[in-house]
Amino acid sequence: MGGECAVPAFFFALLISAATVAAGCAQPRPVLDETRQRARQADEEIERETGGSPPSSPPRADSPSGGEGTEDRIPSPLTGEGQGLPTDRVAGITWEPGADDHDLFREERTFKGHGDSVRSVAFSPDGRYALSGSDDNTLKLWDVGSGNLVRTFKSHGSAVYSVAFSPDGRTALSGGWDWTLKLWDVGTGNLVRTFKGHGDTVRSVAFSPDGRYALSGSDDKTLKLWDMGSGNLVRTFKGHGSAVYEATDLRPSREDGLRTFKGHGSTVYSVAFSPDGRYALSGSDDKTLKLWDVESGNLLRTFKGHGDVFRSGIVNSVAFSPDGRTALSGSYDNTLKLWDVESGNLLRTFKGYGDTVRSVAFSPDGGYALSGSDDKTLKLWDVGSGNLVRTFKGHGDVFRSGTVNSVAFSPDGRYALSGSDDNTLKLWQLPVVNADKGLTGFELFSKLFADELRRLAEGSAGGKPVPPVLTQGKYEKTADFRERVARAKADYQSETDAYSRRLLRPAPAALRAEALKNALYSVFGEPAIAETQYDPDRGLFSCVVKPTGKRAGDFQLNLVLKEGVANDRAEAFDRDLKQGVPRIRFALDDSGRISFAQAEIEVSARAYAALPTKETLKRSLAQVRIDPADGGAAAGPVASLDIRYSAPQTLETLEPAADLSVDEPPSGRARRDEKSFALLIAIERYPGLPAVDFAERDAKTLQKYLVRSMGFPEENVIALTGLQATKSGIQKYLNEWLPKNTDAHSRLLVFYAGHGAPDPASGGGYLVPYDGDPNFLETTGLALKDFYAALSKLPAKEVIVAMDSCFSGAGGRSVLAKGARPLVTKVDSALPPSSKIVALTAASGSEISGSYEGGSHGLFTYFFLKGLRGAADKDGDGWVTVGEAYDYLKPNVQKIARRQNRDQTPQLLPGLEVLGPRADLKLSKVK
């Protein structure tokens, strides 16, 4: 610890009291005194249970119970001899390394029913159902919760190679060996339409994000785009040298002509489209991946790195990350590779397979990758570190191959699905929390505990009944059919009522313990010894235990070993302690309350009891223990540990959790105004410049507000992100599109999230477009004065600018020419004396604007959105005005910025005294 423990121990109490079983909600955080009192009570309970009184003297070296090393053990000044955890006497679980022992990544269930290899699997958008396609010529729909087969789809004349759900989950698509695609009604199982046009096996199918189109890939070397409504072939993509084996997520580019992609020198095995549908990625047996512009058909870059002189580098599967920034590929060279889409650079290679990688997938939050292989396993990887998290074994046996042909994540990221040559699907539980970044580790722990308890309770209740789907028989009377429907409806209602009653019963202790275990490891991972410290005068070791889970935040637990170690053995013991195995015992009572019970650390195969430090002061900690011998308090502190702490953070000073509802527009709906226009510019990843975290998320969320709640027609809202936001891309909308579309009755909202930069000579501010260079601002940047001047020339009656950027060059959302120094910019003077422009800016000239990690937005944008959602409606009239938005923004942004150890003061330009009545311009209707 180096003489200092940065995080107070009461954080541990916050963790252990964070969860409750009631309705999946966290209890209110206790005040600090209550937290400390519970810690004292827990320690007293431990002392009563262990009954350990200090021995009168240390064991002799020749004592029969001494054993190796016992001659160097000295009695603890705290409580004497340490004792192992009496795990059979405390109801709960133990947090310790070795997640394999906790069965967290278990096989949840196996779906049996196919008569041949399962080629493709998919989750429904709501995660309730699974779809599979097989060499037995059928598709099957399964209830994920119960494992029951819901229905079988029959019409293909041969093997089904690929399946996909529509975005709304109502229809499904399949492609097969019979050269066709087929569209199915999921609710009834009826065949809706057959698509013919391919000249060979259809290997892959996918819906466009809006569900209006489908893409198919075939052995006939083409991809085809189909209109789902009419069944017509829209476009054929030609140019591949061999079969196309996989395709996902195409958004149609344009309606005229054919689009040909040329560039690969051999067979193309897989194709994936970026989440926004603008780019395509292909993998080939020429060992490369290629990135294409869908609109123009141009080859943007080639990714090389698979294969070597010993192994084939055929790229068998590719996938885009959910944010489109990275791509994943799986290959015959037994590896997965992660690529930076923008630069084409290889970021990471995932090694661990002994055979071909057949399928790859990203988790919904992009933090994990899943792969399936010819070696019969699935593997889960941490994308950020490249570490193998878990290998899943279970497919195949001595009679059948267990090749894993297809893998998929559930929409919530909690489960994996696999399809195999052993004719089965398998569902696997993943302790992966797909939660918003705004939640702290403690909040995630509480939320997941409730979620897990609900899930386990649902399973123990027998699985949710599946609603019946009935079709009138060809020769069945209508009256008979209606009677049959009425009986089925009554039976289903009875089953549902019985299920609800079972679900409402109190969860058994075993289920609560399992839910606690899963939540604990999902969020905090395993405990590990991070630091050690030795007090030579008292012979005491202390250590810091930190979780390995990346979502745990800054949580740590400070432990003091209850047993002393002689000075001449301290150096060797310290080395062993650093490799020690910590075990933290949690108790769980009938009400669902979680509390710390005991702790021990295994060092060189011997368990040493440990105590968490509980009273956190600025300078020192005094341990006062109860002496079991006389039942009274010791005369004074048994040991006063002179351990220095940084100033403790109390519950009152904890930063409040972000309001995650800002991502959803307000409930109010302003009347649609055909004269309302918006230009949103967001650049998150620049070539060669620091990223602007959450910039694109800022713009996309504001776009939802504008269209859904603020009366802006969708076609009037232009959002320029990434490559679209070049200098010329911005100027063509600023100088051409807006002047042609706005008139004297128009209102315009302009939003910018990206880097700003100062001119070192003049101090003038510049917007930095995607292709901007801070070293050549005059030619590559967009001067702020020119930007405002162009807006002032528009015929619109009012222009509102929201600028989440800064221009000091001191960091955050600003950059600086090489060799220049940060300076105070003249951004205030850039605004022309126009009566129509009102600007809300993120910071003053000398400050930096930053991100709000807790809210997953820029700090300015987060409170701008929250204000628009209603928090800024000071007078309660149901409308948020410009003046109200500023009055709300300024103090809240300043407060959070100060907690981030910096200054950020939003500006209203011109000031309120100049604006006058224009401060009452209405922004959003909130009720």
Topology:
Elements: E1 4-5, H1 10-16, H2 32-50, E2 73-74, E3 92-95, E4 107-111, E5 118-123, E6 129-134, E7 138-143, E8 149-154, E9 160-165, E10 171-176, E11 180-185, E12 191-196, E13 202-207, E14 213-218, E15 223-227, E16 233-238, E17 259-260, E18 268-273, E19 279-284, E20 288-293, E21 299-304, E22 315-320, E23 326-331, E24 336-340, E25 346-350, E26 357-362, E27 368-373, E28 377-382, E29 388-393, E30 404-409, E31 415-420, E32 425-429, H3 441-460, H4 478-504, H5 509-524, E33 527-535, E34 540-547, E35 557-561, E36 564-565, H6 567-578, E37 581-588, E38 594-603, E39 606-612, E40 621-623, E41 639-641, E42 644-645, E43 676-682, H7 695-708, E44 717-721, H8 727-741, E45 747-753, E46 756-758, E47 765-767, H9 777-780, E48 782-783, H10 784-792, E49 798-804, E50 837-841, E51 851-852, E52 857-858, H11 859-871, E53 879-881, H12 882-899, E54 907-909, H13 912-915, E55 922-925
Parallel strand pairs: 1-42, 16-17, 43-44, 43-45, 45-49, 49-50
Antiparallel strand pairs: 2-36, 3-37, 4-32, 5-6, 6-7, 7-8, 9-10, 10-11, 11-12, 13-14, 14-15, 15-16, 18-19, 19-20, 20-21, 22-23, 23-24, 24-25, 26-27, 27-28, 28-29, 30-31, 31-32, 33-34, 34-35, 35-39, 37-38, 38-39, 40-41, 46-47, 47-48, 50-54, 51-52, 53-55
